[in-house]
Amino acid sequence: MPRPIHAVIHQPALANNLDVVRRCAPQSRVWAVIKANAYGHGIRRAFAGLRAADGFGLLDLNEAVLLRELGWQGPILLLEGFFQPQDVPLLEQYRLTTAVHCEEQLRMLEVARPKGPLGIQLKLNTGMNRLGFRPEQYRTAWERARTLSCVGSIVHMTHFSDADSARGIAHQLDVFDATTANLPGEASLSNSAATLWHPQAHRAWVRPGVVLYGASPTGVAADVASFGLQPAMSLHSELISVQDLQPGDTVGYGSLFKAERPMRIGRGGLRLRHMICVDLTPCPKAKVGSAVTLWGQGLPIDDVAMASGTVGYELMCALAPRVPVTVATLTAPEQPALA
């Protein structure tokens, strides 16, 4: 018998969340970011719900090939670009747009000289300090890219570090606008947070990620409650054990929890890698076999992640391969959460 746990991927929720993005940025085209196997949802499963996007952004070349095999003929963007000279012919073969963020990538294009034209997104480091040419290097890099016969369109690209926090994006946006002033080409700036909260940065393209899956860029569910996002993944289990505790009783390895009052606790089926315990005192009717929603409608993944000391993105991507997954193509009521 399989363990009593299963995940559901809700394709209508993905489509709804893409619509939310379009309402937030109505003048922009949308790169739907499906990195990390579509944030743990599975590219094959997520594709149908997001296929109304203008393009898909991802990290892995093999995932880009899979997307073509699934029938997608539109734009695909490699968000970190390519890593080896032998990758360049694959960019051409599969009609991929690539980020170019460093001297080494420019040099590989100069040496490989594919027939092209390849679309590139030239990345400007405006303060994130992970990838990209520094402002004083950017125009020289743009001039080099423009002279390559294999390069077609050049989109100006950056990434915000504080679009979901009080510091905001003004400091980076000023650098971007000053550096790219009078350079032709479209711009792609906005991550999920900037898409929701910073319309001045929407430009020609936006690149939403975590919001497409119904989670908050800040990790706080209340911050996105007004947007109408829906959870694209729900995780369900059952109670497999119920125990009555007295004050002083401990639970689990290392006796990490000690009851301070009479309690009724339950163990849920395996979640990701471990059993979990929950206080059933407020749920007197709960018993072995009672349904449990670990996250989903009515129980935002961000709330669960916060209680677990992590973020929703990490929980989504940590779904173990052995957890059975079904796909909901029509909206259906969720199982009630035990709280």
UniProtKB/TrEMBL annotation:
GO terms for biological process: D-alanine biosynthetic process. SMART domains: Ala_racemase_C (SM01005). It catalyses: L-alanine = D-alanine. The modification N6-(pyridoxal phosphate)lysine is found at K35. Its cofactor is pyridoxal 5'-phosphate. One of its GO terms (molecular function) is pyridoxal phosphate binding. The keyword Cell membrane does not apply. Substrate binds at R130. GO terms for cellular component: cytosol. Residues 232-328 form the Alanine racemase C-terminal domain. It comes from the Bacteria. The keyword Isomerase applies. Its EC number is 5.1.1.1. SUPFAM superfamilies: Alanine racemase C-terminal domain-like (SSF50621), PLP-binding barrel (SSF51419). Gene3D superfamilies: Alanine racemase, Lyase, Ornithine Decarboxylase, Chain A, domain 1. The active site is at K35, Y253. It holds the Pfam family Ala_racemase_N. Keywords: Isomerase, Pyridoxal phosphate. NCBIfam families: alr. Catalyzes the interconversion of L-alanine and D-alanine. May also act on other amino acids. This is Alanine racemase. It comes from Cupriavidus basilensis OR16. The lineage of its organism: Bacteria, Pseudomonadati, Pseudomonadota, Betaproteobacteria, Burkholderiales. The gene is alr.
